[in-house]
Amino acid sequence: MNVVLGVGGGIAAYKAAELARALAQRGASVQVVMTAAAQEFVKPLTFAALTGKKVITGMFSSATGDETLSSAVEHISVAEANSLLVVAPATANLLAKFAHGIADDFLTTLYLAFTGRVLLAPAMNTHMWQHPATVANLEILRMRGNAVVEPEEGPLACGMIGAGRLADPETIAEAAMRLIVQSKDLEGETVLVTAGPTQEPLDPVRYISNRSSGKMGYALAEAAAARGANVVLVSGPTHLARPNGVKLIKVTTAVEMRDAVFENLECATIIIKAAAVADYHLARIPEQKVKKTAARLSLDLDPTPDILAEVGRKKGDRLLVGFAAETERLVEESRRKLKSKNCDMVVGNLVSQEGVGFDSDTNEVVLVMSTGETVELPRASKREIADQILDEIIKLRLALHSAQ
Fold it and tell me: Which listed residue (24, 102, 140, 158) is catalytic?
């Protein structure tokens, strides 16, 4: 287990030494990176003695202090050699730099180059913790998949009593170990995810679609890849970037999505149908743009392929997860879909609620299982919801295997 411990410049930096020891006691090989401000509170020698490794203190620092090509690109080699980055204390300044892509020292540059899991343990004055800028920056980081160990309430170095105290090092170390285990719990699995809307042409310039942004499906693909899975993402039209380590197949129509799903079904072990596939399409599409007139226009629409139901009939021993976007009777409709489509789990969300569902950055869902269990996931960022869904998928699969 290779872990980078980034130490920010705050009075809580001395607790990072306890954290380094706690991580090492759990079997982790710890590489410490200190900001310039952190070195004002704790000397690098302390961490070198606890970890048995040189401490990285700057962009061009090396063991001898020489400026070499290897030290100039060391942030890349460190990023590639470690599976987890823990930042404690994560100061308000570091959170702001991480959120906005500012890379002006080794730790912030390492953060941008890092493709593994990230765990942030903030610590700061209560007013700084509660400031709208800090709240907004932390929300951005959560949405990008960064895990957070919330600070504790108690006496602070400034004399105040309130939220902002660094969490106990043992608590942070346990959270780090959970992320390390989680980062490998889908190794050997191939996860097929569908995301986004489909667009069904009415003529060469018009189409039927829906409000799906694809954010939930992309979050699931990103989370599955971070947990070691081989991920195939079949996506309708979105403006989202391809998640790291994910094979992306772009489609437009429901028929194209169906074809892409079945072309990749054979290798899949888990199928997550998060796409909002259009329910109807125009069977015969005019070759030319339909001109607007004063007359009323009627469209003769046919149902699109029911991809989820078709996969449900052919899934074999694969685990199948469907999504239900509803405006009422959420649990009842999710349970109906579970049975009618032969799913193992249906993720239901009320898209009529403000701030969740289509085109939002947060979600609030109910998981309906084939075992009869129902799990409510309270409102959180879609990436946090994605990891919680994957946690429940793993539990469900173990339960289903045990029942066989």
Answer: 158
